[in-house]
Amino acid sequence: MTTPAIDSTDADGTADTAGPAGVGMPPEAPEALRPHAEDAFAEELKALAAADDRPRPARWRLSPWAVATYLLGGTLPDGTVITPKYVGPRRIVEVAVTTLATDRALLLLGVPGTAKTWVSEHLAAAVSGDSTLLVQGTAGTPEEAIRYGWNYAQLLAHGPSREALVPSPVMRAMAEGMTARVEELTRIPADVQDTLITILSEKTLPIPELGQECQAVSGFNLIATANDRDRGVNDLSSALRRRFNTVVLPLPATPEDEVDIVSRRVEQLGRSLDLPGGAEAVDEIRRVVTVFRELRSGVTEDGRTKLKSPSGTLSTAEAISVVTGGLALASHFGDGVLRPGDVAAGILGAVVRDPAADRVIWQEYLETVVRERDGWKDFYRACREVTA
Ligand SMILES: Nc1ncnc2c1ncn2[C@@H]1O[C@H](COP(=O)(O)OP(=O)(O)O)[C@@H](O)[C@H]1O
Ligand SMILES: [Mg+2]
């Protein structure tokens, strides 16, 4: 690659010879707003690799056992604590990791907010040490995003050649024996999806323009995620589905699990946003989770009152952002302690997606459930204030 010849002199007229990052930048690279999993958890991955004496599949950084431990958490013989990234059934993680060591690709399926993207990123980080070989699926994803494109300047100057070819993340993963990721596979038009069939069954990517091919090196595999609710938008063809092992990620089984997930993530996010710790926030977190679970399932926790469910998904991920938003409010405009007034607006925003129908459902819930509940007076008042 060549650097374009703009900005070659500095403001004071000296030539910029230090390269794009050399001038006007702090000596150390600034901290990324959201580091990749392999960077954020580099210490844990290093400790796991050191403690890991089990066999590793070709080009894997860790053994399947160590990858599962990285995801589920645990304590190593030397005392290093591995934080849990995924809270859920152990078996799901074991099947997912094992799949990646076979010749079948992994499809993570589930409703929004069940940690499909999150698990996919951490799997790629633990298996290949790189979670960035990523294709984001949309209705407009072209075949080039999965195969390769061309650098037109090079193509015009030198004709089709390996130098003019711009490999996709999938092609790079094939060539280097790494884990590729495809997000939201079922949003990609069906004919473009089918590009993956040859890649996954023959483990090769033909390059007819050059009369060549790119053969996958061992270690290559692919993780795709797909949303349950997109079913029917662009269904996976049966030919493609056969190349995948499907693992369904469930919603958190119990309120305790969900409170645990939200608390952990809020704690992590809070640290990177310099917000106060979420430790005293656990009562409020429990309340947000209760409201979300009750409205999602259409029945109160004691099973006595049936409720209507609003149109939003009210996912764990949304609960996390409601609480994080509340903590930000509390720290900038309150005394730093999360109170009902800090989460009420966020909850309302998550519940009332359709301004007519959802609002009625929310008001009914407020008056019949929230109002009557012991210890929920402040919360009721805060909700009334933002709902009015
Ligand atoms: N079971 C779970 N264990 C750990 N984190 C979870 C779980 N479910 C949801 N999350 C959290 O929810 C957030 C959003 O998940 P994401 O991967 O974007 O969902 P999806 O891709 O399924 O829509 C992540 O920050 C993740 O930490
Ligand atoms: Mg996702």
Automatic annotation (TrEMBL):
<dbReference type="InterPro" id="IPR011704">
    <property type="entry name" value="ATPase_dyneun-rel_AAA"/>
</dbReference>
<protein>
    <submittedName>
        <fullName>MoxR-like ATPase</fullName>
    </submittedName>
</protein>
<dbReference type="GO" id="GO:0016887">
    <property type="term" value="F:ATP hydrolysis activity"/>
</dbReference>
<feature type="region of interest" description="Disordered">
    <location>
        <begin position="1"/>
        <end position="35"/>
    </location>
</feature>
<dbReference type="InterPro" id="IPR027417">
    <property type="entry name" value="P-loop_NTPase"/>
</dbReference>
<dbReference type="Pfam" id="PF07728">
    <property type="entry name" value="AAA_5"/>
</dbReference>
<feature type="compositionally biased region" description="Low complexity">
    <location>
        <begin position="11"/>
        <end position="20"/>
    </location>
</feature>
<feature type="domain" description="ATPase dynein-related AAA">
    <location>
        <begin position="106"/>
        <end position="244"/>
    </location>
</feature>
<dbReference type="InterPro" id="IPR050764">
    <property type="entry name" value="CbbQ/NirQ/NorQ/GpvN"/>
</dbReference>
<dbReference type="GO" id="GO:0005524">
    <property type="term" value="F:ATP binding"/>
</dbReference>
